Amino acid sequence: MKxxxxxxxxxxxxxxxxxxxxxxxxxxxxxxxxxYYNWFDENTWKPxxxxxxxxxxxxxxxxxxxxxxxxxxxxxGIDAFVVSWWGVGNPTDDNFRTMLDQARAANFQAxxxxxxxxxxxxxxxxxxxxxxTLLTTRAQHPAYLRVEGKPVVFFWREQKYxxxxxxxxxxxxxxxxxxxxIAEGVKEQLPYLAVFDGLHLYSIAWAKDVTAELQKWxxxxxxxxxxxxxxxxxxxxxxxxxxxxxxxYVRDRRGGEFYRETWRAAFSTYPDWIIITSWNEWVEGTxxxxxxxxxxxxxxxxxxxxxxxKAGLPTPTxxxxxxxxxxxxxxxxxGEDEGQVGVHATISDTLxxxxxxxxxxxxxxxxxxxxTVTLLARTTDxxxxxxxxxxxxxxxxxxxxxxxxxxxxxxxPIADISVTPTPTLTIEATPTLTPTETPxxxxATPTLTPTxxxxxxxxxPTPTxxPAPVFSFPLLKRLFPFLP
Length: 484
Hints:
Blueprint: H1 2-26, E1 32-36, H2 63-75, E2 80-85, H3 91-105, E3 109-115, H4 124-136, E4 146-147, E5 150-156, H5 163-173, E6 180-184, E7 198-200, H6 210-214, H7 217-222, E8 229-234, E9 238-239, E10 250-251, H8 257-267, E11 273-276, H9 297-311, E12 343-347, E13 351-354, E14 363-367, E15 372-375, E16 377-378, E17 384-388, E18 395-399, E19 403-405, E20 442-443, H10 473-479
Parallel strand pairs: 1-2, 1-11, 2-3, 3-5, 5-6, 6-7, 7-8, 8-11
Antiparallel strand pairs: 4-5, 9-10, 12-15, 12-19, 13-14, 14-20, 16-17, 17-18
Helix pairs in contact: 2-3, 8-9
């Protein structure tokens, strides 16, 4: 009789253990991180290069300066630096190794921001070799940032390769998923979450309404899995005008108020982690490191908000009045011309309507955020909805992830894509709307110019600024004398 009892006891322990593991994962530590750059030398600190100066000018190879920065960051509630890294065999790696040693002595941590724009990656094989080296060497250091026992790696410009290419890379480099990979994202890069474990935005200073922009992202990330990590970005401002880029801009710091605003905006999204852009990106003017102009102001603000975040954010409550329940399938409102029946859905972001359920398909037009549409059919995987567009007799497709259906969509019919009628584009076309819907659909030709975005953005739905260093060739030669 002991064996069944022993088996039951072990099973109970296993079940309890699994439950505890699940709860631990659900309650991941609320980390505060900061992007860090380690390529500064004596020639950096000039007014024509940076918009402000450090309170104590330094070189990135100085172990004493690194130790001082670590102590300042720890005192402000920062848990780890995420350091831009160009692979082994160059000063970014030499300085990162120094940081790891200094971090270990100070009970601090550091991780890598793996930059695909590194001048030392000439091919995909170079990237694979570099990732393998990172995971087998630097990531094994006691001070390397680990979560749930897994080393954390951030990525910059992962869109250099396709999702399928990244799947192959990860299967070779990390087949058992023993590390956590965090992508840098814009809306078009969300599919990378099929391979990566989380996503962050490098910049948010370009957004006119930071809160509204950040609040779009948690549901986008979690749509790929509840365990995907949403890393919200906070920034003190931006001033990269000295780079002389065509899209350079200034986001006024407003004496620290913009930084506070981004923290409050990040809190409103209930992020898993928060990352600061940046500790010391002086060239782009996003630094919170003590400076001549601001002293320790940004460390003081960081300390205040980091403590709030780690104490636990209040349980979200909704004060909005719920909308009336819409009709279900079989009771839906009918299109004015065709008697269409479907599920009503609200558009959660300005959304392209395409001729086929594919991001490569012809763009027929756009529907604006907040519009209610009627979903008529779906793809087999329910990642695309079919709607009447631009009129009742024609059809268009919208991405499901940017909609909020008001009822169950499982009963929607699966469309026969092979016989989907392709709409004839016409500027005079009028979308089919029910009497309570507002005609705000914008019709466009297949050569539609992308929606205008702030001056820092690339022509993508959600832009990010470029954190890559701006070097003159002489400075590159000083850092890397072996360059031609």
